[in-house]
User: Which sequence fits this backbone?
């Protein structure tokens, strides 16, 4: 509804502008057609009980010129100088200065920095117009209209009236210009104030988000970091104790537990460093990447997990870091989910990444209804879907033909 209403509002505004221009044209042309009698020789005026005004051929020509000059009001906003020029021509002829004031008004709105120049020229032109009417044969429309007196019998009081009308006209233009500029300044101030409010709201939201990130970072560092540190120490002690046995498999398992604990601790530190705003001087750890798949699969196999992997990655140096990291984390979470819910079962991993094919990750494991005792928050699958959606990818997760399948497709994006 809003989109459909906007063209209608624009058409209504356009019709309103044209209507105002037509109204100004009609009123101004009628005024100047009457003011033609100000020009000597344009009309024959007679006073007395039956005053008459007979327009001459010269008067008809001047009236036509006045109508043509008033058509410039249609471009008064875009080209105010055209209206000023047309109004100046009518002033030079001696008809009136009304059209010139219309053009001056829009010129002052269009070029506010030239107000002193435009204002002084306007006052001087109107003053010369009034003086010419007072001391020459020009003028007489007021006297003939209100006193039935032709040029020769006009009273000097009408010259004073013409001067008063000129002063009031100039004052009206000045007042309208001041009012319009005040409205424009108020509108600009409102826009600026709205922008500043939006900027302040955005900054407040950013500060609130950073505060929440730092709170999460503290909780991770103090809670999970502490527990992982304890696990890493215990795993080291377990590895040292297992080294005294004759079972090499037990020693390798202990070593794997220690490595995984250390890797998890480094991941937590990486996340904490990314969340905190004061971590600029901390050590920058390498970002997650498909380059780390080989090491991850090797560690899982060393820990006794059976993983059948088929990995084909082409053009990894061209892949966007965002897609690269998302793909690695999806593989990591999918394998973790498979190992946790299907202990002892073989996990099948397929990774195919290439610029012309995109990135495809598929993890399968048999459905084994065995309780592992490992706590699960149920957010791993949701995280996979969210990571895929963050890079405009798709994810299908669920049981199929007796197996649990995680199938994710990500679009290829070149590194910027």
Assistant:
């Amino acid at each position: 509804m809003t989109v459909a209403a906007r063209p209608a509002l624009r058409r209504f505004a356009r019709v309103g502008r044209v209507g105002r221009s037509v109204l100004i044209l009609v009123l101004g042309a009628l005024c100047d057609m009457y003011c033609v009698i100000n020009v000597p020789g344009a009309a024959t005026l007679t006073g007395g009980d039956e005053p008459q005004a007979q327009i001459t051929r010269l008067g008809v020509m001047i009236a036509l010129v006045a109508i043509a000059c008033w058509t410039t009001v249609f471009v008064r906003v875009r080209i105010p100088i055209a209206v000023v020029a047309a109004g100046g021509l009518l002033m030079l002829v001696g008809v009136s200065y009304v059209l010139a004031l219309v053009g001056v008004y829009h010129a002052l709105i269009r070029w506010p920095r030239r107000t002193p120049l435009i204002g002084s020229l306007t006052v001087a032109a109107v003053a010369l117009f009034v003086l010419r009417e007072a001391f020459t044969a020009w003028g007489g429309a007021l006297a003939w209209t209100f006193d039935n007196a032709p040029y020769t019998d006009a009273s000097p009081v009408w010259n004073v009236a013409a001067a008063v009308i000129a002063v009031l006209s100039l004052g009206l233009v000045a007042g309208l210009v001041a009012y319009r500029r005040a409205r424009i300044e108020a509108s600009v101030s409102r826009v600026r104030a709205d922008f500043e409010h939006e900027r302040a709201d955005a900054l407040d939201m950013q500060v609130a988000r950073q505060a929440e990130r730092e709170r999460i970072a503290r909780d991770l560092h103090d809670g999970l970091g502490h527990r992982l540190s304890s696990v890493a120490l215990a795993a080291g002690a377990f590895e040292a104790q297992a080294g005294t046995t004759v079972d090499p498999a037990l020693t390798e398992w202990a070593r794997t537990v220690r490595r995984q604990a250390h890797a998890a601790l480094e991941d937590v530190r990486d996340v904490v460093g990314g969340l905190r705003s004061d971590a600029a001087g901390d050590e920058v750890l390498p970002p997650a990447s498909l380059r780390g798949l080989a090491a991850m699969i090797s560690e899982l196999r060393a820990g006794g997990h059976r993983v059948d992997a088929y990995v084909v990655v082409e053009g990894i140096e061209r892949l966007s870091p965002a897609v690269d990291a998302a793909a690695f984390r999806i593989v990591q979470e999918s394998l973790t989910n498979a190992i946790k819910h299907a202990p002892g079962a073989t996990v099948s991993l397929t990774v195919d990444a290439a610029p012309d094919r995109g990135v495809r990750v598929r993890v399968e494991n048999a459905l084994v209804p065995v309780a592992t005792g490992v706590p699960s928050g149920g957010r791993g699958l949701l995280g996979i879907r969210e990571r895929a959606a963050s890079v405009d990818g798709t994810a299908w997760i669920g049981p199929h033909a007796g197996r649990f399948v995680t199938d994710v497709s990500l679009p290829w994006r070149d590194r910027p």
